[in-house]
Structures are given as C-alpha cells and as structure tokens.
Amino acid sequence: MSLWTSLDPASATVDPGGSTTVRLRLRNTGDVVDEYRFEAVGALAPWTVVEPPSLRLYPGTTGTVRLDFAPPRTPDAAAGPHPYAVRITPTEHPEAATVPEGNITVTPFEEVRAELVPPTVKGRFRGRPRLAVDNLGNVKLTASVNGSDNGDQLSYDIRPGNVQIEPGRAAFIETTLRPRQTTWFGSAERRPFTLAVRRSGVAPLDVEGTYVQRAVAPRWLAACLGVLVALAITFVMLWMAYKPQVLTAATEQLQQAGVSTLPPSPSPTPEAPKTPPAASSAPPAATEPRQETGTGGGSGEKESKAPEKAPERTAATAVRELAAKDPGGRHICYRVHVRGKGWTDPACDGETAGTPGSGTPLTAANLAVAGTNGTTGRVFVHDPASTNGEGTFPDPFVNAVDGEDDYVGSTKEDAPAMLGFAVSVDRGKGAVCQSSYVHDDTWLGLACDQPGAGFDFTYAGTHDNDSWIEAVRLTV
After folding, report:
1. Which portions of the chain have biased composition (kind: Low complexity) (predicted)?
2. Domain ranges of the chain
3. Which CATH number fits domain 3-106: 3.30.565.10, 2.60.40.10, 3.10.450.50, 3.40.50.300?
4. Range with the lowest mean pLDDT among 228-232, 379-383, 456-460?
5. What does the pLDDT average to over 442-464?
6. If DSSP states are collapsed to H, E and C, what string results for the chain?
7. If you average pLDDT over every residue of the chain, what do you get?
C-alpha cells in the first residue's frame, strides 16, 4: 500500500436540513507521481459531496479533501448514527484502492401535520369525520387525540385514541360526533369543534372542524302543521258560535193564508203525436279521403326525414374551447348526471353544475382539464349494506390527459346516489378547489388540495350514507 489516509474528525454530528464537513488527509508514500479519484459510498452517498473529486500527489507529499454532508429535513434522514465511506482509487494502481470509513450522527427532529377529511360533516344524529395525522419527522411519533367544543354540545367517540406512527407514514383516526340534544324542527345549526393531537413535552396540535346538525323534520313541515292546527281550531270555534238552525217559516205563512199544503193531484195530459221515423233512403254523404302530396315522386305519401342528432357536448368539448382562447391558462370543465334528468350542460371554472336544493341526487360526473397534465378521480357512493353509516368507493381511480373526458360514477337507472368524489391534478400544475351542495343543506365551504402536503386529492361531498350531493363547483 503506497497511500496513508486520515479522517478529521472520524465521527461528526449533523442536523437535518443543515450540513457538516469532514476533512480527509492522504499522503503518497510511493515513489511515483499518482492521481487519486474519490467516491462517496454507503447510505449517506446521496447527501455527500467530495471536493475536489480527484487529487494529484508527488511522492512524499500530503493533500486534503473536503467531505460535505447535508442530509435533508425529511423522514428519509433517519435519526441516529450512520456509517459512511470514501473509495480512493489510484490511477496508476487501480487494484490498490482503499476505503477509509467514518461515522455521521443525524440529530432527531419532530414535525406533525393533521387534517380533517372532510372538514365539515353533516347529520341529524351523528357525523363521522376522519383525522389524517402525518409524521413528517425522522423519529417515531406517539400521540393521543381528544375532542372539545364550546358549550359541551357534542360527545366524541375516537378510535383509536392513541397512535404510534413511523417516520414518513400517516394514520387515519375515525371519529364519531353525536349532538347531546336533538333538533326536531328548524334550520340547521353549525357547531364548531376541535380535535387536539397531543404529544409529550410539546404544545398540542389543534385541528378545527364544523359539525352541521340538521333538524329531524324540515322547517316548512313545522310551519304547515302549525297552519293546519290553527285552521282546525278556527273552524271548530266558528262552527260552535254560528251553528245554523232550520226553521219552518214558509209552512206557517201558507197556513195563515188558508192554502192547503197538500200537493195538487196530477191532471191528464193529451197524448203527444208520434213522430214518423226518419227516412233512411238517403245514404250519408261520402267523405273524400285526404291525400298528402309528396315532395319527391308520384307515390302520394309525404317523405319524412329524421333530423340529424347533434354531437353530445361533453366537458372535454367545453375545455377545448377555453384552451383555444387561452392556450397558456389552466381550466377545468365539468358536468353532472342528475337521476331521472340526465346530463347537465358543461360548466367551467367555478360555475354551478347540478340542481342545488331540488332533492335529486347525482349519480355520475364528467371532468376535463387543460394546462394541468390531466386529471384523476374516484367516486364515493351510497352503500345499502353499510354498517358504519358511511358509503363506499366502488371503483378504482380513473384518469385522463388534458382535453379528454374523465368519468366517475354510473348513468344507469338503478345507479346509487353519489355522496362525493375525489379529484386531483398534477401537483406541479396547480391544485383543485371545490365546493359541493349536500342534500337538505347549504353549500359546503371552499376546500383545496395542498400540493406537497402529503395529500394528492381534494374530496367534494360527504361521507354520510344517508345524504348525497346535488351540485358542485370546481376550479384549478
């Protein structure tokens, strides 16, 4: 071996997102000039920069190479010691390569992100939001979850109440909200609540949501019942106060005038002469059959030509027209299939598609985008066999490129009601924002997906198996 090496220091510590430097010293102990190439090997190689990458030394001379370690602040940079090595290959004698080794310790860090899916839930007796907790740190996360609200108006059933999440992973926590008092009549009431993710030694992470409690019976029904009861009471009181009495004043006046009240005896009437039977010798006038003159030949029959059916106007048709007017912009067009009515006309960039307030559910949606590298979607529908009060995802994700139609759901007569749908676009090309109208309620608040936040879709609608959406608005 004609090479001597030394690492200074042999062990070092680095924070994720920061950097540290280790110097490699080497001496040419041979008797010829040689050039040495350096290459980082091992698990830390992607985070290591060797400067310079090669060094030429004369016999008996010493040189220094700098090793810069810069692990990212992500779960990939696991906390703890990490061995590393540098392969040194002499140009003159490549078979005599040497590999000095050292150790780098990555310090731990914690980063937690939580989100409610969906942030607003609706129901008469319960609501079922899901809390997604992401561990973006480089150590295992141990946390507990509890709920609270102003006025203690809700009770909380959280499963599981405690979670352990590995770095770079996520956990979904099922939550059931139940109002402590039932609203029988009236309008829906909004009840804000907070789910707190608690960890030892740090402040809790609060995630806010809203539970919209709907009345058991709609407000118009209570008004109708009140009007009917008031009318019934008024009728009874008027009947009792003004009950009609039948009098015989006419008979008494006749007796006073000396007129008998007996009916007169019938008098014989002369026999009416019989009418002679109508003559039947004259036949009825013959009617000429109406002939329709044709336009083409002598057949006498009018030729009818069915009008040609116009091509169907889909979401892709509308978005291509927008893209032609604005080639560099981002656009989304969509239409929905209303049960019993068929497809609506395409709507674009925040316009309303559907029939909000009609009570008629949607069963399918047709989406198309421009300027976002395509779209991906998945439908969530009513589940008649549900045991947890939620619907189901019957089909896998489907996608389409820019300018092409993407369909979710079904247009069959017996298709289940659509509770909602998930939709996304290329993270580098924007984000989808949505608002949906849920049956027997108002528009949900505007919600958008967050590129790079661990969630690659936004969800329009509700998870409640007893509800459905009637209209949507989308933007990109």
Report:
1. 277-288
2. 3-106, 112-213, 315-475
3. 2.60.40.10
4. 456-460
5. 74
6. CCEEEEEECCEEEECCCCCEEEEEEEEECCCCCEEEEEEEECCCHHHEEEECCEEEECCCCEEEEEEEECCCCCCCCCCEEEEEEEEEEECCCHHHCECCEEEEEECCCCCEEEEEECCEEEECCCECCEEEEEECCCCCEEEEEEEECCCCCEEEEEECCEEEECCCCEEEEEEEEEECCCCCCCCCEEEEEEEEEECCCCCCEEEEEEEEECCCCCHHHHHHHHHHHHHHHHHHHHHHHCCCCCCCHHHHHHHHCCCCCCCCCCCCCCCCCCCCCCCCCCCCCCCCCCCCCCCCCCCCCCCCCCCCCCCCCCHHHHHHHHHHHCCCCCEEEEEEEECCCEECCCEECCCCEECCCCCCCEEEEEEEEECCCCEEEEEEECCCCCCCCECECCCCCEEECCCCCEEEECCCCCCCCEEEEEEEECHHHCCCEEEEEECCCCECCCEECCCCCCCCCEEEECCECCCCEEEEEEEC
7. 84
CATH architecture of the region 112-213: Sandwich (2.60)
